[in-house]
Design brief:
Elements: E1 25-30, H1 34-40, H2 48-59, E2 63-68, H3 69-72, H4 76-83, E3 89-95, H5 99-115, E4 120-124, H6 126-130, H7 132-138, E5 144-146, H8 151-162, E6 173-177, E7 180-183, H9 202-209, E8 217-220, E9 223-224, H10 235-239, E10 245-246, H11 249-263, E11 267-270, H12 280-295, E12 301-306, H13 313-321, E13 324-332, H14 336-341, H15 348-361, E14 368-372, H16 381-394, H17 399-402, H18 413-420, H19 441-458, H20 468-478, H21 493-526, H22 532-566, H23 568-573, E15 576-577, E16 588-593, E17 601-607, E18 610-613
Parallel strand pairs: 1-2, 1-3, 3-4, 4-5, 8-11, 11-12, 12-13, 13-14
Antiparallel strand pairs: 5-6, 6-7, 9-10, 15-16, 16-17, 17-18
The protein binds iron/sulfur cluster.
């Protein structure tokens, strides 16, 4: 965290307008990190980071281009090639959330500098904020680091570069000059978030201009900051304090309205850490938000992220009635001593209560997603078992949860703890610190086994599940999963339910593989008479047979989808679906009633791709 004294003036919130309409282009880049795609298993969509900055730059009269390499899946070379097609570039900004994107950001900067040595390149984001001086010492291609929130800072930097002014008074900028690296004082956090210009949705805008299919969803934020102080989290480092500032419900609903009207997008993903504040004020905010959605007659679907201790069934119910369909809870662990170590200020009992409240609210289980850390360096074997069984019994586990190791971000409390309490050597600057060190040998054994088998299963071309991400992606597209443009435009309910059932089935079977690895490891560790060779043989057999079934199932389901597409017209006539059961070892059964008259009932039994209509 930068120790520089924070000062405040109105200039902190000033948009530096390009008063003389000077020519010159600003390019902002969101880099693509291949590893993030396989870890998070989320198809990438618009970049809200770029959207916020472009919104400010456009409002201040600068010509700018957003390059969303993540969405386009462009590596550093493709990205720089695209950037260099543009004329008149005077300033490039690269977003860098964490160590994962730092390497790519450096390569992009070096490729641009090789062709355009006089262009100013700044880097922003969490890692950049916490390690500004180190970045400028580490990489000569960056001219400056933009710390903290960027919406006002970027217009000031653009203005001063375009008008040839000194950078020495731009707050929250760290830059290089002949004297060395200079760190300017911090600007104050943006308290009134309604003053931030609305994001410009470049990706949606371009798709609309080209007449292509629109993105299915949009990212938004309603607040910034978190009162928590979890030891692994870097929100505090980015923002510099624990205050939470919220946009007004009016401001948020206006933006939703604009997106719905301009782009026809009706699905929203609120990315803020605390959509619901645990206070009367928080409840009033939710009430007003719902009231305004009703008043504007906005029929939207949305996803929110909240802490477990802010879940209240009544509030969630209200949100569900206004379109909430998916919720992310930062549970993090199912063991109290682990939660204490993370300084989560939340207990397992509160996590359980949150799940109970969610059940009462009527939100389906499969729409609840947990933030969960399965392994950390200081974890004991007993803690790991508790953690594992809590997750399994919650019925909400995902493969991502089950194999998740703590990613230790530079400069966090956890980063310092590992160095000072456990005497660990941190990685080279800019490299991810996903720990492979475990103090407890049992934890090390389980985690090592999971990692080894995972690697074998998904190994390119040869792993039993090497195509599995592609298979899941296909279903996500078919069912219009968040961030995917649906292939099934009309979202026919029956087709949707069937595809969703298949998707859930595949996920469940994949999870079962991980359960079997965990439980085999536990049994081996606790049964001292068992030989390691026997354990390995048995484990390999179990995993192989489960993975083979899963692989075959995805092929069977492919046939079913083909069969469905051939009979699509008939199936669409039906209006009721009684039962969808996706399991390749049983019938895949759908009972349909004809739309026009209830007299005619039609059974469709699908087995491994065959359709029999009775
Ligand atoms: S509650 Fe979430 S956002 Fe807040 S400090 Fe903890 S991990 Fe970070």
């Amino acid at each position: 965290m930068c120790k520089t004294h924070m000062t405040h003036s109105d200039n902190d919130y000033k948009l530096w307008v390009n008063t003389e309409n000077r020519k010159g282009k600003v390019i902002l880049i969101h880099p693509f990190v291949e590893e993030t795609r396989t870890k998070n298993r989320n198809y990438s969509t618009e970049s809200l980071t770029l959207g916020c900055l472009i919104g400010s730059l456009r409002k201040a009269g600068y010509s700018c281009v957003a390059v969303n390499s993540e969405m386009n899946q462009w590596d550093a070379y493709e990205t720089s090639k695209y950037v260099l097609k543009h004329d008149d570039i005077f300033f490039v900004g690269i977003s860098c959330k964490s160590e994962r994107s730092y390497g790519v950001a450096k390569t992009v900067a070096s490729l641009i500098k090789a062709k355009l040595p006089n262009v100013h390149i700044t880097i922003g984001g969490i890692l950049a904020t916490v390690s500004d001086k180190r970045i400028l010492e580490d990489c000569k291609y960056f001219d400056s680091v933009s710390r903290g929130e960027g919406e006002f800072l970027i217009t000031e930097l653009a203005y001063k570069l375009l008008y040839g002014m000194t950078l020495n008074d731009i707050k929250s900028l760290t830059y290089r000059n002949v004297m060395g690296v200079i760190r300017n004082p911090l600007r104050q956090r943006i308290i009134n978030l309604d003053k931030v210009p609305l994001s410009f949705r470049t990706e949606m805008h371009e798709l609309k201009e080209n007449g292509s299919t629109q993105l299915s969803s949009a990212y938004m934020f309603t607040s910034r900051g978190c009162f928590g102080n979890c030891s692994f989290c870097c929100v505090y480092q980015l923002l510099g304090n624990h205050m939470v500032y919220k946009r007004s419900p009016e401001n948020v609903v206006n933006e939703i309205k604009e997106i719905v009207e301009n782009y026809g997008v009706t699905e929203f993903y609120f990315i803020d850490d605390l959509f619901i504040l645990p206070s009367k004020k928080g409840e009033i905010w939710v009430d007003k938000f719902c009231y305004l959605l009703d008043e504007a007659n906005l029929k939207i679907k949305f996803h929110v992220e909240i802490r477990a201790d802010t879940v209240q069934s009544e509030l969630i119910k209200k949100l569900v009635n206004h379109g909430l369909f998916r919720i992310f809870i930062g549970a993090e662990a199912g063991c109290n001593s682990v939660l204490e170590r993370y300084n989560k200020k939340c207990t397992v009992q509160q996590n359980n209560k949150a799940l109970y409240e969610l059940k009462q609210s009527g939100i389906p289980k499969y729409q609840v997603e947990l933030g969960y850390i399965m392994f950390d360096a200081a974890m004991t074997y007993q803690e790991l078992k508790e953690n594992y069984y809590w997750l399994k019994e919650s019925g909400l586990s995902t493969v991502q949860n089950l194999q998740n190791r703590m990613n230790v971000y530079y400069g966090t409390q956890m980063y310092h703890d590992l160095i000072h309490r456990f005497n660990l050597e941190p990685p080279k600057f800019g490299e991810s610190w996903i720990n492979n060190f475990y103090m407890d040998k049992g934890v090390e054994f389980v985690e090592g086994t999971i990692r080894r088998i995972r690697k074998e299963l998904y190994k390119n071309n040869t792993g039993l599940l090497c195509d599995f991400f592609g298979v899941l992606d296909k279903y996500k597209k078919e069912i219009g999963f968040f961030g995917y443009t649906s292939q099934n435009e009309e979202k026919d309910e029956i087709i949707y339910n069937i595809l969703y059932s298949i998707y859930k089935y595949l996920n469940k079977e994949e999870r079962e593989i991980y359960y079997s690895i965990f439980e085999s490891c536990f049994e081996y560790i606790e049964n001292s008479s068992k030989r390691q060779e026997d354990f390995e043989t048995l484990l390999a057999e179990t995993v192989n047979s489960r993975a083979t079934i899963l692989r075959e199932a995805s092929t069977y389901f492919d046939n079913i989808i083909d069969a469905f597409s051939k009979t699509y017209v008939d199936i669409r006539k039906a209006r009721n679906i009684y039962h969808v059961y996706a399991d390749p070892h049983n019938y895949f059964e759908v009972i349909l009633l004809d739309t026009l008259e209830d007299k005619f009932a039609c059974n469709v039994n699908l087995k491994f791709g065959q359709i029999m209509v009775n």
